[in-house]
Amino acid sequence: MAQIPGEVDNMEGLPAPNNNNLATRWESPDRGWEREQPAASTAAASLFECSRIKALADEREAVQKKTFTKWVNSHLARVGCHIGDLYVDLRDGFVLTRLLEVLSGEQLPRPTRGRMRIHSLENVDKALQFLKEQRVHLENVGSHDIVDGNHRLTLGLVWTIILRFQIQVIKIETEDNRETRSAKDALLLWCQMKTAGYPEVNIQNFTTSWRDGLAFNALIHRHRPDLVDFSKLTKSNANYNLQRAFRTAEQHLGLARLLDPEDVNMEAPDEKSIITYVVSFYHYFSKMKALAVEGKRIGKVLDQVLEVGKIIERYEELAAELLAWIHRTVGLISNQKFANSLSGVQQQLQAFTAYCTLEKPVKFQEKGNLEVLLFSIQSKLRACNRRLFVPREGCGIWDIDKAWGELEKAEHEREAALRAELIRQEKLELLAQRFDHKVAMRESWLNENQRLVSQDNFGYELPAVEAAMKKHEAIEADIAAYEERVQGVAELAQALAAEGYYDIRRVAAQRDSVLRQWALLTGLVGARRTRLEQNLALQKVFQEMVYMVDWMEEMQAQLLSPECGQHLVEADDLLQKHGLLEGDIVAQSERVEALNAAALRFSQLQGYQPCDPQVICNRVNHVHGCLAELQEQAARGAGPLVVALQVRVVEAEQLFAEVTEVAALRRQWLRDALAVYRMFGEVHACELWIGEKEQWLLSMRVPDSLDDVEVVQHRFESLDQEMNSLMGRVLDVNHTVQELVEGGHPSSDEVRSCQDHLNSSTGDDVAVAAAGRLQRFLHDLDAFLDWLVRAQEAAGGSEGPLPNSLEEADALLARHAALKEEVDQREEDYARIVAASEALLAADGAELGPGLALDEWLPHLELGWHKLLGLWEARREALVQAHIYQLFLRDLRQALVVLRNQEMALSGAELPGTVESVEEALKQHRDFLTTMELNQQKMQVAVQAAEGLLRQGNIYGEQAQEAVTRLLEKNQENQLRAQQWMQKLHDQLELQHFLRDCHELDGWIHEKMLMARDGTREDSHKLHKRWLRHQAFMAELAQNKEWLEKIEREGQQLMQEKPELAASVRKKLGEIRQCWAELESTTQAKARQLFEASKADQLVQSFAELDKKLLHMESQLQDVDPGGDLATVNSQLKKLQSMESQVEEWYREVGELQAQTAALPLEPASKELVGERQNAVGERLVRLLEPLQERRRLLLASKELHQVAHDLDDELAWVQERLPLAMQTERGNGLQAVQQHIKKNQGLRREIQAHGPRLEEVLERAGVLSSLRSPEAEAVRRGLEQLQSAWAGLREAAERRQQALDAAFQVEQYYFDVAEVEAWLGEQELLMMSEDKGKDEQSTLQLLKKHLQLEQGVENYEESIAQLSRQCRALLEMGHPDSEQISRRQSQVDRLYVALKELGEERRVALEQQYWLYQLSRQVSELEHWIAEKEVVAGSPELGQDFEHVSVLQEKFSEFASETGTAGRERLAAVNQMVDELIECGHTAAATMAEWKDGLNEAWAELLELMGTRAQLLAASRELHKFFSDARELQGQIEEKRRRLPRLTTPPEPRPSASSMQRTLRAFEHDLQLLVSQVRQLQEGAAQLRTVYAGEHAEAIASREQEVLQGWKELLSACEDARLHVSSTADALRFHSQVRNLLSWMDGIASQIGAADKPRCPSSLLGLPACPWRPPPANPSPLTAPFPTE
Hints:
Elements: H1 7-12, H2 22-35, H3 43-76, H4 86-89, H5 94-104, H6 117-133, H7 143-147, H8 151-167, H9 183-195, H10 214-223, H11 238-252, H12 261-264, H13 271-334, H14 342-383, H15 397-453, H16 462-498, H17 504-559, H18 568-603, H19 613-637, H20 639-699, H21 706-742, H22 748-795, H23 806-843, H24 854-907, H25 915-951, H26 957-1012, H27 1023-1039, H28 1041-1057, H29 1062-1118, H30 1126-1159, H31 1164-1183, H32 1185-1223, H33 1231-1266, H34 1271-1328, H35 1337-1356, H36 1358-1374, H37 1379-1434, H38 1443-1480, H39 1486-1545, H40 1554-1588, H41 1592-1647, H42 1658-1662
């Protein structure tokens, strides 16, 4: 076993022999008794002892095994292992190896896999070897012992492991001798130290000291008092203590439960097991202590970290809030939605201004605080040597600055937008004002013109009307000119609407009003113009009438001339003149009629009439009369002249009549002939059709199949339709024949015979078809009649059964509706039968059955059908009425139920007897009335239903009306009863209220009556109190008199309103009045009695009390105490003032008592007693006045003296308190400290200055009192002198300190400024020394701009340096003690400034050169890229596909070359100039620039050369393509000319002239002359191109030239041929022209040769077929005779 010297000995408590080995030590309990048997013991005793010892050893071994097993499992649990039997599971060495790895934390050799003994021995040897390496001594323990499962050696091995890895580490140093103890002793000492002070806990070993369990609980309570309540544990309850400790350690401390209570609570507990368990407590609590110490250290650091974290959180919170506010504000400010009014925008602008002046400065201050907070965070982190705080993304100062910049940008945009919107709104407001002004002007003008055009003062003569028309036209012109102004109003409104003016509705309304007035005005103007035009037209008609009357008067003068002529010529001349006059009269009569008609139209106008219709009629009659008279005179004047002419006229008329008659006869003959021939053609067509159908019928056979039968049936049906159409044609023929016969046509017999033949042919067919139709009709009629009878029975009319319930009515209505649907379906059958019957009647009048004709059946059928409809309608009406009546009955029943319920409720009501019950009854009755009102709807429904039945004429209307009448009567009765009951309840409520009030008043009266009748006699000193109480009682009685009056008023009102309650109310009122009168009389009597008894005694007592008070005050005034201090004096004054007030009050009281005494009729004895008391009080009151005045004088003087002394002490203390501040010499070591001292001293000086008047006033008062000669004045005089000297010293010291501090401030300010300047110069120097010159042009430009700003800042800082120099000179002139140091610092600053400027100049030159280099590089790169791009274009191989393409290419390339050359030369010159200038300036990269320049010039030269080559190629290509294009165009022209030649030789005109053909040919030849020059130019161009091109191009040129020349030659030869053809054609045309002329002349001569007309058939003339049948006439008729010739 492992041996640690001295350690095992101490743990076992035995000496350490040399042969102390593991086997003997663990086997000694079993075998020791054999060696140590006392020889003298008996066998029985030996046997008992051996068995007892063996039992104890076995028990200890079992406890150790259980404890060690649990200990091993507690450690193996870390690696997920577990053992069940310690002896068995350690045999293979796997678990032992894992246990040692867990305990040591080291990696052991990998165990050998296998279950053989050799494998287990090898694994156990590895574990034992590891223990030896850890300096654990093992004796007599081999691997085979463990593999064989030796219990004692296995337990010994585990114990050795526990000693090495759990107990060996325990070391406790004592405080007295610093002695280091062994592990067991150290553990025992630790347990003793931790359990010291716990009652009944005394740990001396690891066996019996732990049996009661208090030691375990004490250890736990020592370290975790929250887990164990040690005060509740008792030593006697050991099992409970052990169980509690083990469970607590396991559950709360996480310690494995190695022991059980029974393992410890025994006679000899196992020491090793307890040590093992206690060691786990030691390790746990030691670790907890170490963790606590570390926690404190970490806590301190964490506190700092948390503090910084809180500050960081506050910074981030404030930053987030500020950023959120900025973003929110930006969002709000960026909103460009403004109020749509000027006031709204102004308010928004004011709100924005308020934001800028109120809200934003606060946030700006928060932004500054954030920067200070960030600086504080960084300072604390630097102090802790921690990494500086980097705000999270979006919360940095730069982010806030950026957001603040966005905010300011948004503010600027917002302000600009608001200003713009304000200007816009102001413009809109001005525009609206302008609109309002214009609207007012336009409305005024429109109203004025409307009034003007509403007047119709046109006049009654044509000139006046014409003048009115001109005036109206002027008005129209003015109005038309004003239209633009009205449109201007509309445009203004439209502009306001377009700009979104806020009051656009009002603007639109005004605009619409103006437009409506404008439309009204234009309408009025149009109407007035119409009226004017009517008046003007009427006046013109009247003027024409005047002219016509004048003309008729002139004509009358001519007609009345008696001259008739002397000879025939003259008579003939007069007759001609007279004829002309008559013609004029006839012509003028038409004009007169037109005038009269026009005038009469004016009299028939509707609405406005320009003149009185009667005037118009009179003028028309006058003109008409004049015309009639003129015509009469003209008729009489021609008599002699026309006699001869009349004879000739009669003869001419007779001749004309004869000619007319012959013409009419001829026309009639022609019409008759046409009608006859048409009739013959129609007859022929009908006979042909009849013949075809007869042949088909004769040849038809009965078919054998059903399909053939259907086909034949279908043919018969179509035959029937064709026969019907044929019958129509036959009827037309018969009608035509009838007309011809009736007209007396000469061929009537022939026409009649033709008609008979046609009718006989159609008779048979019609009869057969009619018989078939008749049979079908009879079948359909029979079926329809059967259905009609059934339907009439189903309809039944109004005689059918009527429903007795609503459900039955619904069922009957549904069945009746189904019958209607069936009737509607049969309506088509009825119409078809009627149509068929009418067709049969029209055909042949067939009969239906024997003796009954079809025309007799039709009325019966129609009557039956209409009867069916009537029956259905009557039945439907009856059912509907019954259904409505049933609905009415349902509603009526519901209403009756409601009324019965109401009646029952009203019948069982009784009047309650209390106010509360009446109010409850009223509430219930109101609910009942509400229910009745709701139920009125049901009554109304029933009433409306009954009214509807009557209004509709329902058969049940009267019954319904009677039921409703009864319902309404019952409802009215219920309503009346409910109202009556409501009134009774209200009356009862008022009565109960009144009775309750009366009852309350009655009770109060009886109560007061008892108080008034109380006749208890009392002592004299209580009479006054009784009198006072009685006065209060009387006052209460007077106040409650209103109560009685109120009840009387209510009672009188109740009797007036409710006479039926008058008796009870009157009785109650009488009782109350009687009680009240009795109470008043009793009260008055008692009042008089008490007053007489108590008044004299009251006066005596009052004077006695006053005398006592005055006597007490005299005793107070005799004790004169002026007071030793100010507080006492003030107290005495307050007391004196209260005394004086009391005396004044007593004086008034004495006067009142004297007045009462004089007014009261007293007895002589009482009066004398009262007089004595009164005189005594008066004398004592007069004696008090003088002591009071003297006391006041003394107290005031003492107060002034004490007040001045107190003020002097206060002021002296104030001065002495501030004198050390003014006399201190400390000035501070820095500017801030000096400024603090200056501020403090300035505050002190201001305080001294402000306190000066107060102190002067105190000194003045003290000076006045110091002149007095008294001990108190001497103290004031001393205080005055002290205060004056202290005050002067304070002011002088404050002034001296201010001067000293000002001098120190100047020096410290200079040092501070110098330090700032040096720091600034150092910062700028670091910036100037930067080697960064930028990576590109943009970055270099930025650096250069920044450097220029730095240089400008340095230049601007020169004034600060100069100011610092002036401060230095001022300090030196003052002779400051530190003048040398000041001068040295100033020189250092000047040197630094000069060096900084030089460094800035160098930096600027370097940056400029770098920037120029980058700029040159960019320009060179851009120009090279540009040249490369142009080279791509210039090197294009594209030379064009045709002439147009190459022309476009050449044109574009010319523009490209021009632009490229100009731009390239300019850019190249600029780059070359820049390079030359930089090289001349001595740039460091001059060689590189020269290389760039040479390469750029070479590239430009190459581009120019490439462009020239490209231009030459395009020019040559253009020439070539131009040749081919010209050749194609010329060849096209030649081909076009060749195509025109055939048209020249064969002109499209039907009869061309020779001259036109020759002119066309000459024009064509002229066009050919133009082509000659083009062909010659083409040949020249081809010759030139052949000299340039060779190969394929030359061959193509020659080929194209030959093609053109070949076409040209062919065109010339064709033109020659055409010339010859045109010449020959012209000769032929002239010949044909002569022939046509001769033929035309011969045709004219031939047409003049007449020939007799021969009769022809009119049908052939009309395009009709030849007459099919025409019998030869027996006698010639005018129709067949030839027409007479002219």
